[in-house]
Structure formats: C-alpha cells, structure tokens
Design a protein that fits this description.
Helix 2 crosses helix 15, helix 9 runs parallel beside helix 10 and helix 12 packs across helix 13. It is built from 16 helices and nine strands. The strands form two sheets. Strands 1, 2, 3, 4, 5 and 6 form a six-stranded parallel β-sheet that branches. Strands 7-8-9 form a three-stranded parallel β-sheet. It has two domains: 341 residues, Alpha-Beta Barrel (TIM Barrel), CATH 3.20.20; 73 residues, no CATH class. It is globular.
Length: 449
Amino acid sequence: MIKQHAKVTALFAALALAACGGGEIADAPETEAQLVERARGIHERVITLDTHNDINPSNFTAERNYTTDLGNQVNLPKMEAGGLDVSWMIVYTGQPRQADDFTSARYAAAHQSAMNHFEAIHRLVAEIAPDRIELALTSDDVRRISAAGKKVVMIGVENAYPVGTDLSNIERFYEMGARYMSLAHNGHSQFSDSNTGEGDDVWLHNGLSDLGREAIAEMNRLGIMVDLSHPSKEANLQTIALSRAPVIGSHSAARAVGDVSRNMDDELLMALKENGGVIQTVAFSSYVNPVKNTAHNEAVTAITNEVAAEMGIEMGGRGGRGSGRGGAPMTPEQREEFMANRARVMEAAAPRIAAEVDPVAPAVNVSDVADHIDYLVNLIGLEHVGISSDFDGGGGVEGWSDASETFNVTLELARRGYTEEQIGMMWSGNLLRVLDEVQAVAAEIQAGG
C-alpha cells in the first residue's frame, strides 16, 4: 500500500512538472494572511525583550498598579495582549544642569528617588503580581521565567547621578537588581558629559570625569552593563576604550538615518561593534525620523488646537515628564486632568487627522524603525542590533504605540525577510549574550583576573 501511494505521488509530480513545461515548480508567493500567520508563530516562540520602559512609582501601589490597564504604554494587560515578554523597567532620576548644583543634598534627594523606583519594582514582583511577573537578574532567569508562562522584569538605571560621589552606591543598585546603567542623562553629570552639550557646545569633562572612569571599572567588576544612550559621543568613545566588557545603547538609533544627538553615528557604531556590544534600536518618533515627525506633529497640532478651542479646552503644558503653566512641573492632579483633556481632544480630532494629515504628512511608523534596523544590520552586523521602545518616556510610533502592539514589530521584520533565528537574536538573544559576557567578565575580575 505504501509503494502504491508512492507511485501515485510520483505520477502527480510528473504531471505537475509537465504542466509547467518541464521546468521547476515555482513556489506560490506568500499571501498577507500567510505572512501574518508565520509572523505570529515567530512572535510566540521567540523571547521579546524591550530594554527601556520608564515607570512612575505611584503606579506600583496596592490601589493603582500594573495588574490593570492604567492608560500608560506598558502594564501587564498590554504586555500580555501584545506578547511582550520582558520589560526593562527604568530607575530614572533627573539632575541639575549646572556644575555648582552638584551638592550632597541634591545627591541625597536623587538617591532617595532612585530607591523609590527600585522599591516600586520589587513591590510589583513580590507583593502585587508575583503570579504574573518575576524579576530576572541573568539570562537564565529570563528563559526560566518566560518558560513558566510569566512576564519578566529587568531593571536599568537611566542616569548615574543618584550614585552621588560614593561609588559603593553602584553595588547597592546592583544588589537591588540593576543590570545596566548610563552615566548621564540630558545634562552633564558628575561622571560624564551628556549628548545635550551639542546644543550649546558647553562641556563639563570633555568626555568622562575621573569619577566616571572609576564608575566604569566598578560596573565591570559587578556585572552591570554600561549604557551609552544619553552620554556624549566623546564620553561614549572613552567608555568603550576603558570597558573590559561589552557595552550597550539601551535606547538609541542610527544617526545616519535620524540626525539627532541621541543617535549614534557610524564611528561610534563601529567602535561598539569592535567592543562586542549591542545597540537597542529605539522607537522614539523624533529620533527615528525627525523631519517626518516634525511635519506630522505640526499638522496635527494645528488641528488639535482648533478642536480644543471649539471644545473650550486649554491644552497648555506637556504630558509625561512635562510641565504646567509657567514651566512649573505638573502636579499629579494637573497631569491627570491634562491627559484626560488630551484624550478627549484627540478622539474628537481623529477624523480630521485621518482625512487631512495622514495622506500628506504621515506619522513615523514601524517601517521607519525597521529602516534603522536594516541600516544597523548592514553596517555593524545583526548580532549587534536589538530593539527598544522608550515607552512611558516619550517613545512610540504608529503601529507600536504601546506594548499591546508589539507583534507589529515582528511582523515588519518578517515582512523584510528576517528569519526566525535572526528576529529572536534582535528581540532578546543579542542583549542577553552581552549580559552573559558582562557577567563573565565580572566573575573573572572578582576572581582576581
């Protein structure tokens, strides 16, 4: 019976070959439905890891927390809906902009703010939702937790300012779960110049300070990845030269594609490649395509201002880390009112935006992010490229506006011909490889190597 079946199969094959004129049978083009189905399979099998999600400690209380959709960009319902497996939650602290503002009192206040962030994350995994999400400290932890069906939290520190001048605080942050840290944010710190120096050509250290060099050595000793996002190019080149371990850019993109100081130019990218590090391509619209983003925002703003005026709503200030009237920081109540009003205006303006703006000034989208990924892969190699969003810190593009839309990134990469193995490397494999190497260097240093 098996032999007879084989003969029938051979006959049909011969007939098909004859019908094609004796040539090889061409595979039918993949339909959109087949592409989506294939991409969904990839998305379910790989570990998706986003290296930069800002948090607000007020969202980690018994009454208000990530077990419900708070309207922010990353929370458990949105991670589950979008298939985002790993969220690096960020301990962010602002800082003074002037050198004479670096005082022990300011350092103490910043340190307390950082600890509040750490403690909020620990409440989430230990008290609020231990059955749904767990803290990972190693790549093995990530795989174990993900295999168990839980979401994963990892912790990054954006800005080393709260370390103060006491480098023992770096070890304290490590013990609290920090596995990467940047030496500066938008403003020069006691450790490093910031990319913002490009705006006024004023620099504090011409790269790294002596304390910054000591901090890099301490991070290497402990097993904390050094993050190049936000420090200046010169500081980053010095960091790469000093670090015994690979480094990361936790949320940056290619400057050749998006010409802003937060992105990395080719020289810096090639240095990162030689170091063995990884750049986590960021989906922050003004970094991805600043020209396109500006045109879209100006057109949208004109319409939303008209709609807001018709509704009698004042749209002053900005959300997130924004400010209220007169530049003063928004109170929680002001921010809540602002966001509610903004949502009402945007809902009312949506039909006009779709009809009048999108056809002529479209928003920055997932395809634009993939353009950066393509550029980076071609320049430095796929093994040095990852993915991040900067959600709840200003990030987001059309198609990946929050964690619930994470699948769209995988879909776009599959559409461009990346294989499942390659997509898995970019989503998590490359970053976890760097973490492993950083921790191996730390073990060597601690053993006296």
